[in-house]
Amino acid sequence: MKKYRNHRRMKKYWLSFLLGAVLVSPSILYSQRVYFKAGLGITLGGKVFDSWSSTTGSFDFSVAPGKKSSPALDPSLELVFQLMPQLSFSLGVGYIYNMEGVYGSEGQFSPPEASGFVDFSYNPWLNISVRPLYFTAIYSYPIKLDARLTFLAGVGYYIGKITCLDGNYFYKTLDSLSNWSRRDWEFESEAYTIGYHAGVGVEVDIDLGTTFFAEVIYRKADFKELETTATTEGMIEDGAGVLEGGSTFFYAKGIDSGETLGDIDYSVSRISLSGLVFRVGLKLKFGKKRFI
Predict the structure, then answer these.
(1) Residue 144 exposed, middle or buried by CB count within 10 Å (0-12, 13-18, 19+)
(2) Which helix H or strand E contains 223, and what residues bound it?
(3) pTM (2 decimals)?
(4) Cα–Cα distance measured from residue 184 to residue 174, given in angstroms and rounded to the nearest whole number
(5) Distances (CA, A) of 74 to 60, 64, 151
(6) Angle, CA of 123, 126 and 130, to the nearest 5°
(7) Is the pLDDT of residue 228 over 90?
(8) Is residue 29 in a domain?
(9) What's the domain range around 163?
(10) What is the pLDDT of residues 101-141, one digit of tens each?
(11) Pick from 121, 79, 75, 126: which is nearest to 100 by CA?
């Protein structure tokens, strides 16, 4: 049922964007000029909210506040439609990728037989990639004959994917935790959300058809509901069904003669993309006349 709700929500988002495309299509046909805009950006900010837990209480666990992510690459491609000298709008796509990954919260674990001694600790290393679709309104204010300030505001639809880069290490480390047998599952997650952005920039004409631009944009977008699926076999085994959906990334259950001795669950409850984006690039003009 949870997956059904997620798909229904995703369908609602897509219908909203399709409706928006229908509404702006007349403006595209009557635009005075069309530009191709390519930019390379750096995203600053963003946080990961995660936690370790043991539902049986057999292990210690740690819960940490959101951890800041390192800067991420944020390239984008846009088509800009100029409706009048000072007013334009753009439709664009992007790809936000953190090459260094993001380290989550450290979990420390002590089996009951260890008498409180912390057997090991583990710090998950997450990979987060996002594919946004943008709609942006642009107002231009001339400051010189070949230069102008731009003010931008818009909405975006964000498609995210989150995986762990070294999840196998987590399970290998568990081998030294105790002598009981265990069942493991590793997950990856998809997430969808709508966000908003606004900023200011400057454009300088290089020649009649080429313009350099630089922008500073603030983005507000959060993945608050994640949909995880197992990437390892074993979900059909007894007791695994409760893990479908939600925000679990690792799960390990200790079993001895059919009795559950303990379990460990690592989950990511929210991922924030909110922060500043610095972007530079070129804008190339397609033509001077109206299409119709």
Answers:
(1) exposed
(2) strand 222-223
(3) 0.79
(4) 10
(5) 38, 27, 19
(6) 160
(7) no
(8) no
(9) 2-23+34-285
(10) 788 887 777 665 555 555 667 788 888 899 999 999 999 99
(11) 126
Helix and strand totals (H; E) in the chain: 2, 17
State the CATH number of the domain containing residue 62: 2.40.160.20
Site of tokens 């979990």: 107
Residue 66 banded pLDDT, cuts 50, 70, 90: low
Q: Is 270 left (phi over 0), alpha (psi -120 to 50) or beta?
A: beta
Could you say which DSSP state residue 242 is in? G
Query: In angstroms, what is the C-alpha Rg of the chain?
Result: 24
Cα–Cα distance between 214 and 227 in angstroms, integer? 36
At 17, which amino acid appears? F
- Please count the structural domains in the chain: 1
Nearest CA-CA partner of 249 in 162, 183, 182: 162
**Cα–Cα distance between 157 and 133 in angstroms, integer?**
5
Cα–Cα distance measured from residue 143 to residue 124, given in angstroms and rounded to the nearest whole number: 50
CB 266 within 8 A of CB 197: no
Is 28 among the domain residues? no
Residue 292 lies in a domain: no
- Under 8 Å between Cβ of 36 and 268: no
Quick one: CA torsion of 60, 114, 176, 51, rounded to 10 degrees? Answer: 0
Sort 63 into a burial class: Cβ within 10 Å, 0-12 / 13-18 / 19+. exposed
State how far the Cα of 144 lies from the Cα of 211, in Å rounded to an integer.
Answer: 14
Residue of 69, 100, 39 lying closest to 274 (CA atoms)? 69
Which residues are bridge partners to 130 per DSSP? 96, 160
Instruction: Show the tokens assigned to 241.
Output: 């069904």
Cα maximum dimension of the chain:
81
Asked, for residue 261, whether it belongs to a domain, the answer is yes
Question: Which distant-in-sequence residues (6+ apart) come within 8 Å of 198 by Cβ?
Answer: 152, 153, 154, 217, 218
Q: Is the Cβ–Cβ distance between 216 and 172 less than 8 Å?
A: no
